[in-house]
Amino acid sequence: MDKKIKPCDCENCEFREVVFATLDEESIRELCNFKEEKSYSKGEIINHEGEAITDFKYLKRGLVKLFRSSANGEEQVITITRPFEFVSNLSIFSEEKYKYSVAALEDSIVCSVNLEFVKKLLTRNSGFAVNLMTRISRINDKIITQTLDIRQRNLAGRVAFVLLYFTREIFNSRVFDLPVSRKEIADFIGMSSANVIRTLSNFKRDGIIRVYGKTIEIADIDKLEIISKRG
Amino acid sequence: MDKKIKPCDCENCEFREVVFATLDEESIRELCNFKEEKSYSKGEIINHEGEAITDFKYLKRGLVKLFRSSANGEEQVITITRPFEFVSNLSIFSEEKYKYSVAALEDSIVCSVNLEFVKKLLTRNSGFAVNLMTRISRINDKIITQTLDIRQRNLAGRVAFVLLYFTREIFNSRVFDLPVSRKEIADFIGMSSANVIRTLSNFKRDGIIRVYGKTIEIADIDKLEIISKRG
DNA sequence: CGCGGCTTTGATGTTCATCAAGTAAAGTGG
DNA sequence: CCACTTTACTTGATGAACATCAAAGCCGCG
Predict the structure, then answer these.
(1) Segments forming the whole domain that contains residue B67
(2) Helix (H/G/I), strand (E/B), else coil: B156
(3) Out of A62, A210, B17, B215, which could bridge A217 as a Cys pair, Cβ 3.0 to 4.6 Å?
(4) Interface test with A, best of B120, B137, B146, B187 (most A CBs within 10 A)
């Protein structure tokens, strides 16, 4: 694991506005002393399901997947997300141990702050508490809505949905490199990887997408939209 | 809608310990002035998807389902829950409008407090904020975990899972009256109502459950457990 | 260049939704 | 309280959707 401790720059961190907006300068400086910035390369595990939660973590840069593993080694991907939409692990205020794992899908940077210190800040500054509460609620809401949206759809609709998710929410571009394997898509939308591939092939055949290895180009976003809506 | 405004008794309300534990006596009395206690009879809608959120609501007594409706009139049941596990509607701090509806499955009592007042309390008392945050996180966690648990299972496993959920979490009894229709179970676990019924019939045939109209008796909880695990 | 993992495609079988038709139950109006 | 209507439940038959299996191709990496 590639751990780097950086000099304090929290005052100017772009993340500050997101949750730490209401903290005064002194709290921010204090926060910096407790802060560790760590880099994870693609594929590395950031949080392990079952391990004790000791830190409040947030994604500063990169892309991660949230997932859990069942007894027989199967994975369920809960969501895939970018910085600022993702604050720490969900169960941070409700559980002692991580209920889900987090892994880097691209090289990522994570900031860690001792959890006890964050709790102290929370009791000291209720604006911060309300802010964080809103943030956590929004993430949870998003995950629940996404899960329901996926559950509603059939196979083709699910694949269309996830492609639209990547193009709109994750990459903000019609062309992107798939950050996950076909298997991971399957684990995300609850179907077999063979059928994910088959569906992608059909989309390719119908001129809806173009595929160059890991690179995907959305050729006909309207048609994809229709499939996502109908499915 | 059967609305009753009751005299103030918040000081001694059993719910107080759950989220309002850290409030001082004065805040509690103030809370009481803002509070409305409403009764809903079985089947009534407590919150309507899409309506503005103006109140912080919590279930004091009864049983409710959380659900959303799709364009073509189909319902997805998100969870079914009892008091104290359920604080208000999920999106209360993250959205302007309800994202999900809530309906009473049994006659229920709901306390409403003006949301702005609760937000004022939150900024005045950070212990309350942390407490509430923990509570909301836990509910969200539970919903996400439950959804994943259901998604993992096949048809029989899902029905077994939901029966175990009723017997353990909701009724705490081996015998109970089903609070929902077969259709609602289907909408909860994502399958057709015909197959829910078929699976229940199979369980009955195999001596796993006994059915007397709406009343269900779990005859062989171990076998049900095995089906739930394996499925 | 050769090995192992990811991907692709086709063939096959299982699981599940859908349809239909009938029965029971529960509400409704006289 | 009974006849009527409607809604929920039940069961079987059918077909569609999807998982699984297997074999082959591709690609990156030592």
Answers:
(1) 3-146
(2) helix
(3) A210
(4) B137
